[in-house]
Amino acid sequence: MIEFKEISKQWPDGTMALSEVSVSIPKGQFCVILGPSGAGKSTLLRAVNGLMQPTNGRIVIDGTALTPATARYLRQRVAMIHQHFNLTLRMSVAGNVLAGLLPVVSTGRAILGWFTPEHRAKACSLLARVGLTPKHVQRRAGELSGGQQQRVGVARAFMLDPEVVLADEPVASLDPKISREILGLIRDAARERNATVLCSLHQVDLAREFGDRIVGMRDGKIVFDGTPAEFTDERVEALYRGAKWEDTPKVEEEVSFEGMPSDLVAA
Amino acid sequence: MGQSMKIKPIPVPAQGSTLDWHLDQPYRAKHLLWLLLALAFLLFTGHRTEMDKMVVMTGQAVGNVIGLADDSQVVRGLSRVGESMWPPALGTQEEVARLTDLDRENLPFLASIQVHERVEQKLNTDTLELEEHREQAELLVKPLGYVWLVFIKMLETIEIAIWGTLFSVVLSIPLAWYAARNYTYNKFTYTLARGTISLLRSMPELIVALFLVLAYGFGPIAGVLALGLHAAGFLGKFYAEDIENADKKPQEALEAIGAGKLKTLWYGVMPQVVPQYIAYTLYILDRNVRMATVIGLVGAGGIGQELKGRFDMFQYDHVATILIAIFIVVFLLDQFSARLRAKLI
Fold it and tell me: Do A88 and B274 touch (CB under 8 A)?
């Protein structure tokens, strides 16, 4: 159970990334956060493990509020899958997956790379689970294709058997076929552990296919919250309507020349 | 997200409005003024550093060599030293009478005993006349004795360089940790580490060695410490800057699960920076070998100490042997480090 309680975030330049977002995601749910770029999806996800400090509001995970005192404990239970995979490219696939255990491994063992047999067996079984083969284990992560790198990212995320998985646009840079495979892996691995998944996406079709629930965001606010069945084409249209150039902030529209079609204002 | 907010659209002007197109020349009067100022500065400082005199003397030397000028101070000086440097000293001769523990049956490799006759003029105290006095002396001749001595001294120099490098690596690791903005504990530790690095870098090895010789006496200790201290400043600075510039993405991934600073550094940063670290460390080893030959001049051990002694005794043929040895070692080290780098990166 993740509870967002009136989370607001204002960037130093005054932009409101999130305005008083309140939502709670029950245990075991695959919740997709959908919306145009700049809607605040990543910012919301990053609030859960404290990578982003909200200006106002609280995060409560399974009854424990996220504070500097509880952050270290909570972070071990919240895994994250990143848009750009965020692997150490010059390190082996095995090293990257084992790095997912670092919070529970002693510093000495970590420095020497001397992991216990159980930990090494777990890394192997997770790599097998995400569809890699033994010949990948000692390869450098940077030598793998994008899809394979994200498989490693997924394996790393599940090393600590997390209760919450944050997936920040995990398939934004992958092709549709691999995107489905990766999202399927995340969904199935999370179901096996009854883990809650909070997944931000760009693609409406993937959101409908994989989400138990869809939360639509626009300009830092939640504008839709319901099941995929309720997320009709009209709702999609409403969510994206008027969203022109993806990253053009509202302020800039005011300086555009009057009388010009807005799509000539190039980003 | 914060980044994307900064992208500003280029405004498109209304259709039909007249546009003022112009492309200026790249230079203006301002640039000419700067050029004249730079020229004036070069003329002024060039005179103060005797660059004009240098050009005249070098011109004379070239003229002397090709037969246009009668005399050149530069050519005279160089040829005097040059003549006494060639051929380089290879062997040694020692009087057998002075060698107490020489085993005649079992001479060292390549060595032989030769009898030399010495003629001396001696004053006969009875007649008060000079008389020729013949004296026979046995000499132990080692044809490659001096080459061997230089080899031993060179080894000592390389050992000093290796230990100086080890010392600097060990010292620079904590310095780099505290001097990396994103891993230091607070502003105080950052400033302290950066200050230490600047201090170490600002002290030339030769000066440090001069003081350390006073503290530890003649020999390699002063050499190792002097090389290590200076290089620790260099390595600390470069190690720290690589930590700061490393790709943030893997670090964020490890930070997100609460891995802790040290483990994040080890798994998220070190694999990225290792090739650069090896390159820096090899450069320091290379530099330390060259510097180790120099700091011997102030008595900090190694080949430099030998060089200084021979130079002061005007034995330029021995100096020549040492210089050739230094060149060979630096050349071999260049080859070695180039290969190691190519293999590891």
Answer: no
